[in-house]
Design brief:
Number of helices: 9
Radius of gyration: 23 Å
Strand content: 15-25%
Order of helices and strands: EHEEEHEEHEHHHHEHEEEEEHEEEE
Helix content: 10-25%
Distance between the termini: 21 Å
Oligomer: single chain
Largest sheet: 8 strands, mixed
Low-confidence stretches: 4-15, 27-37, 277-293, 296-311, 364-373, 379-407
Strand order of the largest sheet: 7-8-9-4-10-11-13-12
Shape: elongated
Number of strands: 17
């Protein structure tokens, strides 16, 4: 989360909160509005169940604008089980509140299961939260009513939706059985363990057959064994019902439980970890709209960074957004002393990055020697062994960055 450091209405390079809200509502070009090249058939996010296009959320706190989301792009396909990770203040909770219909974006566009959340009105928003999305809170007390049994808690959303008593009782029993807590049907929340409470909460979220289930730190208050049980329940729900599941957490270790992990940093998506058979280099193997640049690792070391020796088929990608921005990993840039400016070299099969010092630049003796020339390169895809490849490079200087290195 970034503090803009200026008051609304003051001169600056960015728009004020009111200006962004007006532009978003009007669909001004460049803001990703309806009918202005935003999300739609054949365009960005086509076929996705969740699509965020240059999503912006700005809060005003004591007269100061705070930027929680800064042009975030995100595409989730139907049936995916995905985790969103990030440090406190990265914008992940803001994203979840917007996707759940509890908050409204300032600008950009977000569509979930065909619902445009920027333009959604009161009654439609209520129906959206009741039928389209299910929500699981970190605090078990927010998921379950203490004076109802587990089965009654699961049946309650269906009762509010007008489902007949016999049908909702049958579905409640089926869901509790599916998630391995059928024995808990006649117990009250106080009689359940933390893991059992969260499994019942998953059943509550699934009660009205939503298209998407959103989970906010569902294992944050659980021990390791209980957390593994809850994630197993989420995987079961995803596999058996086909519901799309998006888990938001600060714990990067959840990548071991899901196929796709997306990291958010400073209000934008920064990296993705795909857990599958080794994908083709330089691009996500599942064809997602967010292209990636491989960071050279397979497996993870518990921080989301590719460790280079894993046998679980996981590989980390940097996310290249629609504006061409790329966040270079901090440990990469720190090890090479990169900051403020960098030099770029466009090769036939990759892009090379060098520190922007006056005496830096592509060294012909070290350009393809595995990185000893003091720069970063993307993976070679076929021409890295050509001794003359560096002569065809086009060198550019990247604009200085304020808070993180971007190219």
């Amino acid at each position: 989360m970034t503090c803009a450091g200026r008051r609304p209405g003051e001169a600056g390079t960015g728009s004020t909160l009111a200006e962004l809200e007006q532009a978003a509502a009007a669909g001004t070009p460049g803001q990703g509005g309806i009918g202005q090249g935003g999300i739609g058939a054949g365009g960005f996010g086509a076929g996705a169940i969740i699509a965020c296009d240059r999503l912006v959320r700005i809060y005003t706190v004591e007269g100061i604008e705070v930027q929680a989301l800064q042009g975030l792009d995100l595409v989730i396909r139907p049936g995916e089980l995905t985790a969103v990770v990030g440090a406190s203040g990265s914008g992940k909770s803001t994203l979840l509140n917007i996707l759940s219909g509890l908050d409204r974006p300032t600008a950009g566009q977000v569509v979930v299961a065909g619902h445009d959340l920027l333009l959604m009105k009161g009654k439609e928003r209520l129906a959206y939260r009741r039928h389209t999305v299910g929500f699981i809170w970190q605090q078990t007390g927010r998921n379950l009513l203490s004076y109802l049994t587990a089965a009654e808690n699961v049946a309650l959303p269906m009762r509010l939706a007008g489902v007949r008593r016999q049908a909702r009782q049958a579905r409640a029993a089926d869901l509790l059985g599916l998630l391995g807590v059928a024995r808990c049907g006649d117990r009250y929340p106080a009689q359940l363990s933390g893991g059992e409470q969260q499994c019942v909460a998953i059943a509550v979220a699934l009660a009205n057959q939503p298209r998407v289930v959103l989970a906010d730190e569902p294992t944050g208050e659980l021990d390791t064994d209980a957390a593994a049980h809850v994630f197993a329940a989420l995987r079961t729900a995803n596999a058996e019902s086909g519901v799309t599941v998006l888990v938001v957490t600060h714990d990067a270790a959840v990548s071991a439980h899901v196929r796709r992990t997306i990291a958010i940093q400073d209000g934008r998506t920064s990296t993705e970890v795909l857990r599958q058979a080794a994908p083709a280099r330089g691009r996500a193997a599942d064809g997602n709209d967010a292209d990636g640049i491989g960071l050279g690792g397979t497996g993870t070391d518990g921080t989301g960074r590719g460790s280079g020796g894993g046998d679980d088929g996981a590989e980390e990608f940097a996310v290249l957004d629609r504006a061409g921005r790329l966040q270079l990993p901090r440990d990469f840039t720190d090890s090479l002393g990169m900051r403020d400016r960098v030099r770029l070299a466009l090769e036939t099969d990759h892009i090379a990055v060098w520190p922007g010092t006056p005496d830096s630049g592509p060294d012909e003796d070290h350009r393809h020697d595995g990185g000893t020339g003091g720069g970063l390169t993307s993976h070679d895809t076929g021409g890295g062994n050509d001794p003359n490849a560096h002569r065809r490079g086009t060198h550019r200087r990247a604009a200085p960055g304020k808070r993180r290195e971007e190219t």
